[in-house]
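Summary for the steering committee. The consortium agreed at its last meeting that each partner would contribute one worked example illustrating the joint modelling workflow. Our contribution is presented below. We chose a case with several input lines so that the handling of multiple components could be demonstrated. No manual editing was applied between input and output; the record is shown as generated.
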Amino acid sequence: MSKFTYPQEVLDKMRDIVDNCMGEEVPYCEATCPMHTDVKGYVNLIAEKRYEDAIKLIREKLFLPASLGRVCAHPCEENCKRETEYRQPMAIAALKRFVADNFDKEELWNLDKKENNNKKVAVIGAGPAGAQAALDLVMEGYSVTVYDRLPVYGGMMRVGIPEYRLPRNIIDFEYSLLEKLGVEFKMGVEVGKDISFDELKENHDGVIIAVGAHKGVIIPIEGHDKDGVLDAVNFLRDVSLDKENVKIAKKIAVIGGGNVAIDVARSARRVGAEEVHLVCLEEKGKMPAHDWEVEEAEEEGVTLHAGFGPEKIVDENGKVVGFEIKKCLSIIDDEGNFNPQFDENNKLVLDVENVVFAVGQSVDNAFVNETLETKRGGRFNVDPVTLQSQIENVFVAGDASGGSVIAIEAMAEGRKAAKSMMRLFNGEELHTDREKEGTYETRLETDIKEGTEDLPRISTTQLDPKIRIQDFREVDLGLTEDNAIEEASRCLKCECKLCMNECVMLNDYCECPKDLFENILETGDVDPMIPYSCNMCSQCTIACPKDFEMSGRFMDMRKVMIKQNNGKSPIKGHSAIEMHQLLGFSKLFNTSKPAKTSSKKAEKGRS
Amino acid sequence: MADTKRVFIPGCSLPSYNPDAVMKTLEFLQEKLPGTGGILKCCGKPTKALGQVDKFKERYGDFQSEVDKLGADEIIVACQSCFLTMSANSPNQTVKSLWAMFPTLGLPERAKGIGKKSDITFAIHDSCSTRDRKDIHDGIRWIMSELGYKVEEPPHTRENTKCCGFGGMIVPANPDLAQRVMNKRTEEVESDYMVTYCAACRESMVKGGKKAVHILDLIFGDMYDSNSEFPGNPSSPLKGWTNRYKSKSNIKKVLK
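What follows is the complete predicted structure of the assembly.
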């Protein structure tokens, strides 16, 4: 009855709307988040004080909301419309932390997994990449065993990120979800030593390598092999696992300009270093570390030597007694290569007994016995789309393949590897339809609405620097409830749907034109009342950034319906118009009169 | 027949609403522009709006032959739907909107400044079908200013005007929706009083809760203020057809 056959040119115009209408495009934050958290959704639930709904919504995508609320480098905030427009991004991570800290409960966790499918998977590494892969697999009914040579959960989140940024009980609480779901953890078990990689492959249907990059890099400058030279990875791991027994000199230098260098400097202050020099090639403000981390380090008494590079490490009897540095003039050469130039006449010697290198990490890949290809930094060579290695049922996720740098990216990689593996097991194509995994660019284009205020970002409060350097208590105190509501209320709720603000009728029948026409194209079915409810006023087209003419499409449909309904409207109420038309054309109500003849003269006279 | 240079076509909704205004407009045009004839006939737009392509062709052909019979090379319309339909379908005639002509013709003497002492403000509702005709918008503002009434421009006005709720033949199809569209239009208007230049729009504004007049009511009627009785909406279609019949008689009377 309501199925109509539309001519191709009518269908093509509908298709154009379906393909290009931005009504269903996700906001910038969500597309940027590698895990595609529904940021707009949960932020606005917080604004409405619907905290439990907010944490449930976050948990649909993230099993580590409190951890990520603290340590996520939040690429989402960089693409927030309030950032690109006003440089005042939404405090998305802080809002996540607020709701996770105060409203996350084990009772809310989804433990509804599929029935066991008798397939066994081994995951090497209990960091965010491995844990996410394990989670996705166990939910789909796989038996998953996670191996990690560390005695504790979390990988680099645990032994790289210092405790004052991420209290350890939070990691354990959030990882307990995996235990509840039946993931088996073999902690303190080193693959390649306690169990061989081959054995692991033999005993499982598939293996996911997510070992991270836990080998410190030391630049081979003069004196690099002296007693007192350390690397960041080892130092931070020692601090994390056994801070009481860490030995550090009173005066130390850290070389590196990234967040890891900052973590080393600030951790060193907390385990006894009184004078900490941070040396990096970049000028302040251009350092890879976040500005606020540099600031917090300086508040804690770290001395910054920005724009300096290493000359040599000075020793006495094999023990470090100084670090000579020199002024850096430029870092990148004309060809765009890393090629730092120095002022050889501007050098100084720092009086230190430890030099810690925080200049990068590499992957300890010895456990595979060269059965897999590797590249720079010991990272495994994989298909970037599927994360598949040269061995069909072995996939590599996270820092181990170089696909991620931050925790949330590692999780997305873990998810990608798990998805590939499941496709392999199910005999499906691995490469298709994977464009929207990880960060992608949304097709959404929005302008700031008239009357939008440039409201400042609300910051969290920090513990007093004098108090916080005494131990490893958490520095960031988070948002208060009032602050969280105020901050969440700043969200611009980015979406297109400009036509939906204008049109009453569209709101009766769809979420957006794409939704409406997609449905028609898919089913060929439409309630005739829909095209016959359009006022043909074009207000939607005026609002539409793409100038789509919805009224034109409805008129196309009306014509088709009339044609396929013997020339009559399929709408009952329209019989009144037929009557109206009959009378409107009847002689009784029509007349046609020429101009008065007498006016002829008048007109002539006028001209 | 060549004496008829141009023809005034009041449309359908105006003759059904105010036969007196039809008569006075035609008289006014007769005086200002001798050689003006008159046709009362539907242009067939309703069939076009329903998507009845063939029926519309037939109806419009019918209408066109009346114009051609009179030999007019200019059509003066008071309806915005007529303006669009005839502009698109009568290539041999020049189609002019009455509203855009007033600034050149001037207002009738008695109308000039009539609203100066009125204590009310009229919000202007532009017809959405001619949203891109600045000359029509300007003509309406010129008339209101000449009349001396205070006016309000709603947030959606001129090229961005909102639909009155009547368009697209949705009233008989989906009356509940039409009513909500009408309410949405009037909700954003501050004044209790509105002026339109389409009789269907006027009816919609009244349904949306406003006191509303057609601009011809202001040009040819008495001064409107807060004590005036405003035209309501017809309680049955019969009233409209009676008016239409009166309009027909009036046209015949003027062009006797």
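Chain B has two domains: 6-103+236-254, 107-220. Chain B touches chain A through 61 residues (CB under 8 Å).
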